[in-house]
C-alpha cells in the first residue's frame, strides 16, 4: 500500500513548495525554486527530504550551485597590488555562474575578473604579475598581413584567406558554394576547387607538399580525404586520390570542348 503524501508533515525550507508536486515515472517530485535566479524546477522529493534532514540542501540550481560555496583558504588570501579580493563579480560561464575576483592590469589599467583559486596560487608562487594578455611580454603579437584586395594571411593558422572581393566573377558561384556560412574561403582550397571545376566537400582536405602554407601554386597542392577507410585517405602520399580527381576534371573539360560546335 502506497503511503499517502502529507505536505504538512514535511520539514519547511524556503526554496521548497511541498504543496506543488507531480509524479514522474511513479516517483513524487516537488517544486524547488532557486534562491538566486528564481527559476522553479521539479526535483525528486525523497532526495530533497533527505538533504533537508541532513542540512545539506540549499535549493540552488545546477547553474548557480557554486555561488553559495566559498572555499576556505587555510593560508588566507595573499596580497597583491593588482588584485582586489573584495571586488568580486558573478560571471556567467555558460552552464553555470561563478564568483570571480577583480584583477587590474598594471600596464594598461584595464580591469578583468578571474578565478580566485588560480590567482592566489600564482601570487604565492611569485609568478603572478597581473598583466593582461595584450600587455604580456610573452604574448604572441599576431597581426593580419594584407596581401591585396580581399587577400590576407591568417596570423593564427598561416593560411591565406580570400574574401568576395578577391574572386573573379566567373568563380563566384563556386566561391559561395565553398564559403557556406563563413565570410571567407582559404586560397589553397579555392585553387584546387577551380582546377577540379567543383566545390570541395568538408571531407576533402588540401595539403601543401612543401609545408609552406602561403605557397598555393597548384603544383604544390595535393587533395586527400579525411577519415579512415576512405579512398585516398592520409595526406595523399602513396595514394592516387589526387590524380584520380584531377583526371576526372580533365575528362569533364575535354567533354565540354567536344560539345562545343
Automatic annotation (TrEMBL):
Annotated organism of origin: Actinoplanes campanulatus
Signal peptide, first to last residue: none
Classification via InterPro entries: His-Me_finger_sf, HNH_nuc
Xref: Gene3D superfamilies: 3.90.75.20
HNH nuclease domain location: 188-223
A Pfam family reported for this protein in Swiss-Prot or TrEMBL: HNH_3
Name of this chain's protein: HNH nuclease domain-containing protein
Lineage of source species: Bacteria, Bacillati, Actinomycetota, Actinomycetes, Micromonosporales
Amino acid at each position: 500500500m502506497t503511503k499517502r503524501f502529507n505536505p504538512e508533515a514535511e520539514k519547511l525550507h524556503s526554496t521548497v513548495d511541498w504543496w506543488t508536486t507531480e509524479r514522474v515515472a511513479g516517483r513524487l517530485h516537488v517544486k524547488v525554486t532557486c534562491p538566486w535566479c528564481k527559476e522553479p524546477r521539479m526535483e525528486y522529493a525523497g532526495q530533497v527530504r533527505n538533504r533537508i534532514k541532513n542540512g545539506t540542501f540549499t535549493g540552488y540550481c545546477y547553474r548557480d550551485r557554486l555561488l553559495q560555496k566559498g572555499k576556505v583558504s587555510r593560508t588566507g588570501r595573499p596580497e597583491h597590488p593588482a588584485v582586489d579580493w573584495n571586488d568580486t563579480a558573478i560571471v556567467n560561464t555558460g552552464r553555470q555562474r561563478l564568483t570571480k575576483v577583480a584583477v587590474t592590469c598594471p600596464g594598461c589599467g584595464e580591469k578583468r575578473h578571474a578565478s580566485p583559486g588560480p590567482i592566489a596560487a600564482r601570487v604565492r608562487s611569485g609568478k603572478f604579475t597581473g598583466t593582461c594578455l595584450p600587455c604580456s611580454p610573452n604574448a604572441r603579437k599576431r597581426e593580419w598581413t594584407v596581401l591585396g584586395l580581399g587577400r590576407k594571411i591568417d596570423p593564427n593558422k598561416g593560411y591565406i584567406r580570400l574574401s568576395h572581393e578577391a574572386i573573379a566573377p566567373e568563380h563566384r558561384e563556386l566561391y559561395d558554394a565553398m564559403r557556406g556560412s563563413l565570410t571567407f574561403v582559404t586560397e589553397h582550397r579555392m585553387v584546387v576547387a577551380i582546377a577540379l571545376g567543383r566545390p570541395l566537400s568538408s571531407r576533402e582536405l588540401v595539403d601543401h607538399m612543401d609545408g609552406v602554407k602561403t605557397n598555393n601554386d597548384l603544383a604544390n597542392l595535393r587533395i586527400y580525404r579525411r577519415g579512415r577507410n576512405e579512398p585516398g585517405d592520409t595526406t595523399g602520399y602513396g595514394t592516387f586520390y589526387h590524380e584520380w580527381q584531377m583526371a576526372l576534371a580533365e575528362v569533364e573539360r575535354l567533354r565540354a570542348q567536344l560539345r562545343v560546335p
